[in-house]
Amino acid sequence: MLCSAPIIWCNASQSAPQDKDQLTQDLAVLSERNRIAIPSLEAWARLWADPSAAANKIIAFVGSNLDFVALGFTTGVASGIIGIGGGLAMNAYMNSFHPQMPQHEVVATSLLVAVPIGLSGSLVHYKAGRINPASAVVVAGAALVTTGLTSRFVKDVDDVSLKRFFAGVLVASSLTMMR
């Protein structure tokens, strides 16, 4: 994490388009490239009718995104072992190796990924009787409120400032972990 902070800091200004029209075009291209369409009912029916075509599409998608598959495995292992949501690791990776991704998209992707990995690990620990439900409800409630409020505030922060803030958080987190 500490090593990726300078990369993210330097990439922040390099990856930010200077004019708003260029930013709009770049975001449209990036969104189109990374878009995962939610299938309609007709599309689901076609998938059931031709499962081999569906499997081929999934294999092609996974094959063209192997770095994100590896990131998912790494995040899953880290989450299972030490209970992190993977936000620092996922954000550091996406910022360092995909600097064209806007920071808002990096954050949103990380938040969405945290839901299934958190549920998966939590169910295992719940079945083993290792969760304190009262503490979990209080922490989850506070986190739910503050994440919603913070996300509303951060949506108006420019990408360069947000990436540099994240680089600072990485440095602070890394130094704290090394103590």
Produce the secondary structure layout.
Elements lengths: L3 H12 L4 H15 L6 H9 L1 H13 L2 H17 L4 H11 L5 H25 L5 H22 L4 H20 L1
Task: Describe the structure in your own words.
This protein has nine helices and no strands. With 179 residues, the chain is mostly helical. The protein has one domain (4-178).
Total strands: the figure is 0
Low-confidence stretches: none
* Helix-strand topology string: HHHHHHHHH
* Mass-distribution shape: globular
The amount of beta strand, in percent, is under 5%
The rounded distance between the terminal residues' Cα atoms is: 15 Å
Number of domains: 1
Give Rg in angstroms. Answer: 19 Å
Total of helices: 9
Binned, the helix content reads over 70%
Q: Please, what is the average pLDDT?
A: 80
Largest sheet: none
Structural class designation: mainly alpha
Characteristics of this structure?
179 residues; 80% helix; 9 helices; mainly alpha; 0% strand
Summarize the structure.
This protein is mainly alpha-helical.
